[in-house]
Amino acid sequence: MKNIKINRALISVSDKTEIVELAKVLRGFNCEIISTGGTKKILEEAGIKVTDIREVTGNPEAFGGRMKTISFNIESALLFDREKDKQEAEKLNIKPIDIVVCNLYPFSKVKESGADLDTLIENIDIGGPTMVRAAAKNFKYVTTITDVSDYDAIIKELQENKGCISYNSRFRLMRKAFNHTADYVALISTTMDEQAGERSLRLAFEDGKKLRYGENSHQEGFFYKEIGAGNSLFDIKVLHGKELSYNNIGDIQSAVDSVKNLKRFGCAVIKHNNPCGLAEGDNQRKVFEAAWNGDPISAFGSIIAFNKPVDLNTVEFLNLNNENKRMRKFVEVVIAPKYSEEALEYLQFHKNLRVIEFDPKDSKQKFEIKYLAGSLLLQDCDEKLYEKIEKVTEKQLDCKKELLEFGLIGMMQIKSNSIAIVREMKNGNFQLLGMGAGQPNRLVSTKLAIEKSRENLNNEFEGNPEDFDKYFTEELGKAVLISDAFFPFADNVELAAEAGIRNIIQPGGSIKDKTVKRKCNELGVAMAFTGIRHFKH
Amino acid sequence: MKNIKINRALISVSDKTEIVELAKVLRGFNCEIISTGGTKKILEEAGIKVTDIREVTGNPEAFGGRMKTISFNIESALLFDREKDKQEAEKLNIKPIDIVVCNLYPFSKVKESGADLDTLIENIDIGGPTMVRAAAKNFKYVTTITDVSDYDAIIKELQENKGCISYNSRFRLMRKAFNHTADYVALISTTMDEQAGERSLRLAFEDGKKLRYGENSHQEGFFYKEIGAGNSLFDIKVLHGKELSYNNIGDIQSAVDSVKNLKRFGCAVIKHNNPCGLAEGDNQRKVFEAAWNGDPISAFGSIIAFNKPVDLNTVEFLNLNNENKRMRKFVEVVIAPKYSEEALEYLQFHKNLRVIEFDPKDSKQKFEIKYLAGSLLLQDCDEKLYEKIEKVTEKQLDCKKELLEFGLIGMMQIKSNSIAIVREMKNGNFQLLGMGAGQPNRLVSTKLAIEKSRENLNNEFEGNPEDFDKYFTEELGKAVLISDAFFPFADNVELAAEAGIRNIIQPGGSIKDKTVKRKCNELGVAMAFTGIRHFKH
Question: Were both Cys, which of A496, B266, B378, B494 would link to B259 (CB 3.0–4.6 Å)?
Fold first, then answer.
């Protein structure tokens, strides 16, 4: 596949950035430049000789600019096969155009400006996509540039190849041109549907990477970048370790979401998409320990995320270079916005551990979707913690508002039915002490959260075993139990109160709210309603 | 917005279905018909007078058909503003074209045929999308038909309106035209990426319905149909009851997936996306009871799916018209391929109960996706139950292969870590006796499955309470425990064996497999490996 000498260019751009530079280089190789309206003016002002497109089309610019480029002559010059159709072209007096430089007028900007239907319609480009698609179709001979960011590479290539462009470049730019047009046309179609009060949705992804496999090894798995997305999970830097797996990536999203809204040092421990550990506080090492101790069994093989740069002292908690292998804490992935040099070096003691540089704050999700068989559910993200904290019992909640917020952040990441028990530790750190996830029956989630809290408190308890129950009840009395949805009966309150829980927040809204409140008053439990349910499936 | 009399039509279609009928109607209103190549031939053979497009363009058909319609005259005739540009058009001798009938050559067929790059390229239509988009842009005056299924409505409208088409029709068809072009262009762009060994993905959805809200009431929620999908969840018929909610729809997918591969009568009870009840057998009523009794507490407010037509006897189990309200079983949704008249009438005793007609077998999912912040995971669906059932202990599994398959089907729908305990009942039905879902620690899932089994067996036990433990152990001895992933330690086996479990299947593949097998042999447990993990998150 040979290089093609660029003898004739058609330039018609809405974004004029660097167009003069590109045109100058083309002229330097004696390339004729055909241009239209505004582009022509700018090039001529820069002293570049330009052929008016009307000389080529043989037609006037007509109908308020609706007809500029579309013509037998232009599209023929782009489309004819330089070998098969050579004689026919000569007979018809069609001279080849070798490069098209065209970026479509940004319809998205017009749309964002809140334009009315007439204005939107006027801004639908017909000629641009036609010449871009015609040039792209004939990429065997023609180069199509639709993106300013490609100018530099093309200039370099022209200079290195005596004014020629290679097949590989033409092929790559052809794909870009078709993608560019597809995005453009898609936006128009969804916009017109919107104008009719109809909803359509077109999602576009690129750069698909084949992963080793999907959730399981008999499933193929792929990872794509959303076209137009900023700094996303796709762009995370793996500083060390094995390739990320399908399940790693899903867990990383959960991990990042769990810590991104924490204000102090935050750390999440993720297993099967649920945070089984979460903590926040002023000392990162202590925070890591507290998160880990939320479920020190499940934490093995987990995904760990930090919301702030990580130092050596923090990661040394993993004991990666301990001579006693059993003391080493194995985790799959560590994510943080940054690592100190020493921390990074330390993490590399473990050959396979994936060390990832990504700032959780950069994770911006537009909406959530659930792809079903032939259909799709879409919703905006659940980002509001609560409506208000409304006292509904005789007793007032006895804890900081910040602890409630921490607990809500954690609970919101746990699959429904979800119950979280959180506490403020003696050192001022907040900790997810126990959680219950994914149960069909809320009572079981409450039971699981209490059992886990008991285990964890037992792990930290240093007194006489016979005093543990007292310690357990006391500690739970200082904690808060958070429910993702209302209590349908009073049984959850009974169970929680029996274990020692004295503070509960939940959305409220059950027909049994009265019974639930009465039970709280009877058992000396403080309860507040948040007004917002947080189902997550 | 006025009706437009159709005086001049441009017809160029690849799918010739019913084109003669449409053209005849147009001619009946004295409409001039301009046409190209194959379409022209067919119309003329049917005795319809046709203007050759070359008479309008003033150009030859050139370059092996690459240039046919694109011309100053055609696109001007479509694009000029009938009011503002009237005089200019007259001066340029441009006569308006009022309707374009054009369906693009189905690129997808060429692609599916495995065509090479050259053939694909040759089949990229440039002129078609140009004239469709030009006509659609000028929908204020021009009608654009891109779909044979619209001919009938247009014929009717022409006949009722003396050869005119209304603004509303033009608007609707404009949207269709832009959508059609968007799909077409999208397919080309992903195909060209494929040709380069790159993966891009474009998903398109239409008919978005605003739901009351998303997973929670402070989130907006929408439901879309995938463009091109067959009979999907979007098309389910709600025969009775309230509007489906966001969570209903997600649960319906889980319910449908849980029963669609069952061979005998099947029933699933879904809560929070997990089947908490599942059964299969020869008697539908008994199957419903068995499924319900898998978790008779959580079953309240659940989603119920059947895989076969439902009769009155089955649904009477719900006790909907029982005088004692407490005896009535409240469920949110019932799904079945069909209902007997009596069954349907009975279900309407409950005002809000959504009764849905949908055959679970019609649910065809192309792949699974997980939409993350600015990126996307995609995998093919998990459809293979097992590689082989490989005995790995001294004892052989003591149960039917069909029971194993039933259990695998159930377990595969339960969120990881997932443990299912299934049994064959005395009446030959298979039942999910207990399950553990969504736990970070597999041991907890096992514990949950055993506890639920104990509760359920206790509910059915009719002997002396002191004899229950014996009954429990015996019944569990006949059941099978199924794990979605390997056991990392022998503790799961110990816990299961202690409860009475004697049959276990799991994928195998842990570095501790040997220890696990040894523990089975020691405790008299039969274990088989399936070779396939079934994580589901």
Answer: B266
pLDDT, tens digit, 9 for 90 and up, residues B149-169? 999 999 999 999 999 999 999
The enclosing domain of B79 has a CATH number of 3.40.50.1380
Q: Within this chain, do residues A171 and A311 fall inside the same structural domain, yes or no?
A: no
Measured between beta carbons, which residues in chain B are less than 8 angstroms from residue A185? 133, 178, 181-182, 185-186
User: Which of B170, B195, B220 corresponds to the end of one domain?
Assistant: B195
Distance from CA of A445 to the nearest CA of B (A): 10
The domain boundary, picked from A362, A379, A403, lies at A362
CATH number at residue B357: 3.40.140.20
pTM of the model: 0.93
**Is B377 among the domain residues?**
no
- Give CA–CA dist A308/A353, Å, rounded: 19
Residues 422-451 of A with CB under 8 A from B: 437-441, 443-444, 448
- Two structure tokens written together for B218: 């402070």
Tokens of A116: 């009315």
Task: Choose from B78, B88, B191, B192 for mutation: most chain A CBs within 10 A.
Answer: B192
DSSP letter, residue B183 = H
Domain contains B286: yes
Q: Do A193 and B175 touch (CB under 8 A)?
A: yes
A242 is catalytic: no
Is the minimum CB–CB distance between B273 and chain A shorter than 8 Å?
A: yes
Q: Which residues of chain B have pLDDT under 50?
A: none
Quick check: A105 and A96 in contact, CB under 8 A? Answer: no
Confirm if A265 and A312 have CB atoms less than 8 A apart.
Answer: no
Q: Provide the token pair at A470.
A: 């007292």
CA-to-CA dists, residue A48 to A42, A102, A119, A492, angstroms: 9, 18, 33, 79
Q: Which chain B residue has the Cα nearest residue A80? A: B63
Q: Which chain A residue shows the shortest CA-CA distance from B439?
A: A437
Please check whether residue B535 lies inside any domain of the structure: no
How many domains are there within chain A? 3
Catalytic option among B5, B272, B361, B478: B272
Residues 79-138 of A with CB under 8 A from B: 79-81, 84-85, 88-89, 92, 121, 124, 126, 129-130, 133-134, 137
Q: What is the pLDDT of residue A2?
A: 86
Other beta carbons within 10 Å of B21: 13
| Tokens describing residue A402 | 């910040």
The verdict on ipTM greater than 0.90 is yes
Q: Is residue B214 part of a domain?
A: no
Q: Provide the residue range defining the domain that includes B315.
A: 236-362
Q: Which of B92, B209, B224, B382 has the highest number of chain A CBs within 10 A, making it the mutation to test binding with A?
A: B224
A 376-405 residues with CB < 8 A to B? 376-382, 384, 387
CB atoms B219 and A382 under 8 Å: yes
Secondary structure, 3-state, B383-426: CCCCCCCEECCCCCCCCCHHHHHHHHHHHHHCCCCCEEEEEECC
With an 8 Å Cβ cutoff, are B189 and A200 in contact?
A: no
What DSSP line would sit under A350-390, residue for residue?
A: SSS-EEEE--GGG-----EEEEETTEEEEE-------S--E
Per-residue pLDDT of chain A in tens (537 residues, 90 and over written 9): 789 999 999 999 999 999 999 999 999 999 999 999 899 999 999 999 999 999 999 999 999 999 999 999 999 999 999 999 999 999 999 999 999 999 888 899 999 999 999 999 999 999 999 999 999 999 999 999 999 999 999 999 999 999 999 999 999 999 999 999 999 999 999 999 999 999 999 999 999 999 999 999 999 999 999 998 988 999 999 999 999 999 999 999 999 999 999 999 999 999 999 999 999 999 999 999 999 999 999 999 999 999 999 999 999 999 999 999 999 999 999 999 999 999 999 999 999 999 999 999 999 999 999 999 999 999 999 999 999 999 999 999 999 999 999 999 999 999 999 999 999 999 999 999 999 999 999 999 999 999 999 999 999 999 999 999 999 999 999 999 999 999 999 999 999 999 999 999 999 999 999 999 999 999 999 999 999 999 999
Residue of A16, A137, A512, A536 marked catalytic: A137
B537 is catalytic: no
Q: Are residues A358 and A398 in the same domain?
A: no
Residue A106 pLDDT: 84
